[in-house]
Amino acid sequence: xxxxxxxxxxxxxxxxxxxxxxxxxxxxxxxxxxxxxxxxxxxxxxxxxxxxxxxxxxxxxxxxxxxxxxxxxxxxxxxxxxxxxxxxxxxxxxxxxxxxxxxxxxxxxxxxxxxxxxxxx
Length: 121
Prior knowledge:
The protein is mostly beta strands and 121 residues long. The chain contains two helices and ten strands. It has helices spanning 27-30, 104-107, and strands at residues 6-7, 11-12, 18-22, 33-39, 45-52, 57-59, 67-72, 77-82, 91-97, 115-119.
C-alpha cells in the first residue's frame, strides 16, 4: 500500500531550523501536488504548505516566510525547510497528497508515519 513517510524531526530550540524530508516512494513522482501537514497535541491535523510539479507553492499564513517547501523529482522527495521555529510549531509533521487539490477520500489512502518536531528551550 502506498504511504508517504516523513523524517527529520527532532528537538530544537526556539529560533532554530530543521529540514524535514518525505522520501523514497515512487508515487511522490507522479502526484501533481504534494503537501505538508502538522498535528499538535490535542488538535486536528492542519495543512501547512503545498508544492506542485510546476513548483507552485502555497503556505498557511502562520508559517509563511519561515517555512519553505521544495521537491526533487529525481529523488521522489519533498522537503520542508523550517526556520525561525517557535514553540507553537511543536507538532507531528506529515507529508501526503495535497488535500487542497485532491479529494479527501484519495488523500486518506496515503497517510503514513509522521515525524515529531519539538521546539523548546
